[in-house]
Amino acid sequence: MARRFRGREVVLLSGELGAGKTIFAKGIAAGLGMKSCAQVCSPSFTIMNIYQARFPIFHFDLYRLEKSADILDLGWEDYLDRGVVIVEWGERIPFDLDAIRVDIKKGKGDERIIEVSMPKP
After folding, report:
1. Quick check: 111 and 24 in contact, CB under 8 A?
2. Angle made by CA atoms 109, 110, 111, in degrees to the nearest 5
3. Whose CB has fewer CB within 10 Å in the chain, the N or C terminal residue?
4. Cα 85 to Cα 47: distance, rounded to the nearest angstrom
């Protein structure tokens, strides 16, 4: 999926703790040509990590931000159109956004059920 990105995509990742949101973000980074995807980690405490690949990757984690005002005060929207924006806990964004939405659910054992919704053209 990420190999076809043009550098302005927003990907909202949703799923419970341990569902695999960060692993999915690593896959996006790999698809964008990031040399060491081992660097991709959940920015739970830093809120945002920046990675270099074919396009800059701005990786956000909204887990620790519960109030809509906190999310809006982050200024993460300043990164739109500057690279690929990946948002873990993307369902917490309090407004509509033209984005790729990825919902990850745990199945049995290591199984995951992943639903991807693309933005309308």
Report:
1. no
2. 95
3. C
4. 13
Nearest to 88 by CA among 33, 45, 26, 42: 42
Residue that the structure tokens 């980074």 belong to: 29
For the chain, what percentages of helix, strand and coil (3-state, to nearest 5) are there? 25, 25, 50
Following CA atoms 88, 44, 56, 26 in sequence, which dihedral angle do they give, to the nearest 10 degrees? -60
Q: What is the C-alpha to C-alpha distance for residues 104 and 94, in angstroms, rounded to an integer?
A: 20
Alpha carbon distance 97, 93 (integer Å): 8
Phi-psi region of 23 (alpha: psi -120 to 50; beta: other; left: phi over 0): alpha
pLDDT per residue over 67-80, tens digit each? 777 777 878 788 98
Q: Is the pTM of this model over 0.85?
A: yes
Residue 80 CA, chain-centre distance (Å), reads: 12
39, pLDDT greater than 80: yes
Q: What are phi and psi of 106, to 5 degrees?
A: -75, 140
